[in-house]
Amino acid sequence: MSARPWIGNREYFPGISRIEYEGPESDNPLAFKAYDADRVVGDKTMRDHLRFSICYWHTFCADGADPFGPGTRPRPWSESTDRLKAAEEKLDAAFEFFSKMTVPYFCFHDRDMAPEGANVTESEKNLQHLVGRAKARQKDTGIRLLWGTANLFSHPRYMNGASTNPDFDVVAQAGAQVKAALEATVELGGENFVFWGGREGYSTLFNTDTGRELEHMARFLGMARDYGRAIGFNGAFLIEPKPMEPMYHQYDVDAQTVIGFLRQYGLADDFKVNVEANHATLAGHSFAHELRMCTNAGMLGSVDANRGNPQNGWDTDQFPADLYDTVQAMLIVLEDGGFKTGGLNFDAKVRRESTDLEDLFIAHIGGMDSYARGLLIAHEMLEKSSLADFRRERYASFDNGQGQAFAQGKLSLEDLREHAAKQGESQKRSGRQEWVENVINDFIFRVKP
Ligand code: XUL
Ligand code: CO
Q1: How many domains does the chain have?
Q2: Is 109 in the active site?
Q3: Does the active-site annotation cover 82?
Q4: Boundary of a domain, candidates 359, 384, 409
Q5: Which 8-state DSSP code applies to residue 195?
Q6: Both 353 and 429 in a single domain?
Q7: Residue 315 Cα: closest atom of ligand 1
Q8: CA-CA distance, 261 to 267, in Å (whole number)?
Q9: Whose alpha carbon is nearest atom 8 of ligand 1?
Q10: What is the pLDDT, as a whole number, of residue 1?
Q11: 9 CA from centroid of ligand 2 (Å)
Q12: Same domain flag for 338 and 432
């Protein structure tokens, strides 16, 4: 790892050095209070449990612009009018930030890193140029790629969808982009490749053949899988569900819909799910529900760690700060044996009113500490609370006798009737929800970072 705290010719975040762990009593806003990367929790370090990743798009491409007004945040790395030079500077700023935040991973869309060219060949060349530079920066800093993806939603050509577009020429453009993004991901050693549905959905059934569009989407994903495997991509392909925005109806509404789709089209061996917290709540679920649906199916790939705003219906992508959420998420991840290829990617942005570059650091520190606390509390609960025993006990009637025979598929509907007639009315058993909630709060306040 390079001794200098920044990369390239210029320091973009002067006055801010590497963020260190200072412990829970520290009041330094630029220090970790809970994330102590080398601390061992159970069988591995916090760094290896949490596998934090910083995303390129919110932090280095966006400037706080919203539909009502322009950007509010300076981006000293985007001042050059030469698009390639600006992209190079952005890359240097990004790697300086990743290093100072001490995260092991980053994520990017093709168009975050390199500008679109005048045609397919020029776009490919731009991306290859920046990928070469990113590879060198990875070597300098040791920072790895959690996942790459293709932006198939910003360019106006994708307004009616990418792989589900009614015009084959657009589908082919999307294919060219995914091909180049897969090559970039392999070149940078990416551990996953993500498809977020973007504009794969529709606004009205009167102009849309949903049956054909779904067939095309599956065909396209299969082609991406085949090409990825052919060029040596051994990681996981991930679909990121989201119920709405930008399209009124998105095909990848939620985890169970995506899992059913992948199984229907024979993609379930190569694809898993990337669960985003804010997308879960937009779908009318909880974040924990979406995670659990994936682990039940053996298909939890990775997590976009953020949170929504309970009062509105759009994707606010706030940094995670709710311990109740992070505890529940880490309980499910730990019970699933931890992340395999995935990790916790901060698909999150600071508020438009947070205009200091320092706010970018503070936001990520908060997100990392929230998950570090979630990990510590979840681990302690799994070790010491009786919640898991209580949950198992609720199903004990399926562990032997007729209940076990039922679970093993050995009974018929007539057998159920015979059992019911013989046993008579069942006994009431409390679900004890209030006790469960009390236990979670007790552990949240018991565990000290
Ligand atoms: C959009 C979203 C994307 C994906 C990657 O809501 O979450 O940033 O994570 O395309
Ligand atoms: Co996301």
Answers
A1: 2
A2: yes
A3: no
A4: 384
A5: E
A6: no
A7: 6
A8: 8
A9: 347
A10: 44
A11: 32
A12: no
- Do 219 and 269 lie in a common domain? yes
Contacts of 385 (CB under 8 A, 6+ apart): 439, 443
Strand-strand pairing, 144-149 and 192-196: parallel
- Model's pTM, two decimal places? 0.97
Which atom of ligand 1 is found nearest the CA of 58? 8
Residue 424 within any structural domain of the chain: yes
Q: Are residues 101 and 139 in the same domain?
A: yes
Beta-bridge partner residues of 344: 52, 303
196 Cα to the center of ligand 2, angstroms:
7
Inside any domain, residue 1? no
| Residue 315, ligand 1, Cβ within 6 A | yes
Inside any domain, residue 431: yes
Same-domain check for residues 27 and 97: yes
Residues in the chain: 449
Pocket probe for ligand 1: among 177, 239, 240, the residue whose CB has the most ligand atoms within 8 Å is 240
Determine the pLDDT at residue 4.
Answer: 58
Domain containing residue 286: 20-384
Residues 323 and 435 in one domain: no
| CA 100/CA 380 separation, integer angstroms | 30
- Say what percent of the chain tops pLDDT 70: 98
Encoded amino acid at 194, one letter: V
Statement to judge: residues 353 and 409 lie in one domain: no
Statement to judge: residues 282 and 331 lie in one domain: yes
Of 356, 384, 412, the domain-final residue: 384
Ligand 1 contacts CB of residue 270 (under 6 A) = no
Is residue 350 one of the residues assigned to a domain? Answer: yes
Distance between Cα 210 and ligand 1 center (Å): 23
276: Cβ below 6 Å to ligand 1?
A: yes
pLDDT in tens, the chain (449 residues): 445 556 677 999 999 999 999 999 999 999 999 999 999 999 999 999 999 999 999 999 999 999 999 999 999 999 999 999 999 999 999 999 999 999 999 999 999 999 999 999 999 999 999 999 999 999 999 999 999 999 999 999 999 999 999 999 999 999 999 999 999 999 999 999 999 999 999 999 999 999 999 999 999 999 999 999 999 999 999 999 999 999 999 999 999 999 999 999 999 999 999 999 999 999 999 999 999 999 999 999 999 999 999 888 899 999 999 999 999 999 999 999 999 999 999 999 999 999 999 999 999 999 999 999 999 999 999 999 999 999 999 999 999 999 999 999 999 999 999 999 999 999 999 999 999 999 999 999 998 77
Helix 357-384 and helix 323-335, axial crossing angle in degrees, nearest 10 = 50
Residue 54's CATH number: 3.20.20.150
Task: For 303-339, give one letter per residue: b (16+ CB within 10 A) or e.
Answer: bbbbbbeeeeeebbbbbbeebebbbbbbbbbbebebb
Catalytic residue, chosen from 112, 270, 347, 369, is 112
- Of 265, 262, 276, 273, nearest to 236 by C-alpha is 273
